[in-house]
Amino acid sequence: MPASRGHTTIDLEARQLFCERDDRVLFDELDLRVKNGDLLQLAGPNGAGKTTLLRLLSGLNRDYEGELLWNGQPLYDDYSSYSAQRLYQGHLAAVKKPLTPLENLRWLVSQWQVAEDDLWQALDDVELGGFEETPCQQLSAGQQRRVALA
User: Fold this and answer.
1) Which of these, 31, 110, 111, 143, is most buried using a 10 Å CB contact count?
2) What DSSP letter does each residue of the chain carry, written as one string?
3) Residue 128 sits in the same domain as residue 75
4) Residue 138: pLDDT above 50?
5) Is position 4 within any domain?
6) Is the same domain home to 17 and 79?
7) Whether pTM exceeds 0.90
8) Based on the number of CB atoms within 10 Å of its own CB, is 105 exposed (0-12), middle (13-18) or buried (19 or more)?
């Protein structure tokens, strides 16, 4: 839905989020609004709940109290639309290191019908052209992350 003149649509909103781990409160009464194009930076010491919050916002963790809204509606009412428009990149690259970048992509999309040319294009898009047949364990950490992004 387009934003009306003078009004900005909020794409993702958290209201009164509460989360605890091992009887320790990570956050309480957390409110957050992120619009398309916004940049969100989380800072804090290890164990403060940064990754937990990101996993909640990405829909990968439902262990919380409060509300998560996507375009004004409860996140899980239209989760397929939300998940199609977000990308969560965790600490690890999430690639199978013995496989090449091309083999990783083939494995990932094996459940869908994806043209081989699209896989090659995805690798080119993340500047991995020429590394298609190199085992990921031989790639740098940054290159492995680009395989995950492809």
Assistant:
1) 143
2) -PPPTT-PPPSEEEEEEEEEETTEEEEEEEEEEE-TT--------TTSSHHHHHHHHTTS----EEEEEETTEEGGGGHHHHHHT-----SS----TTS-HHHHHHHHTTTS---HHHHHHHHHHTT-TT-TTS-GGGS-HHHHHHHHH-
3) no
4) yes
5) no
6) yes
7) no
8) buried
Total domain count for the chain?
A: 2
Averaged pLDDT score across all residues of the chain: 85
d(CA 103, CA 56): 30
Residues 35-50 have pLDDT tens digits of: 888 888 888 888 889 8
126 and 87 Cβ atoms separated by less than 8 Å? no
Largest CA distance in the chain: 52
CB 104 within 8 A of CB 119: no
**Length of the chain measured in residues:** 150
For residue 110, tell me if it sits in a domain: yes
Tally the C-alpha atoms within 13 A of residue 11's C-alpha that lie toward its C-beta: 14
**How far apart are the C-alpha atoms of 20 and 41, rounded to whole Å?**
21
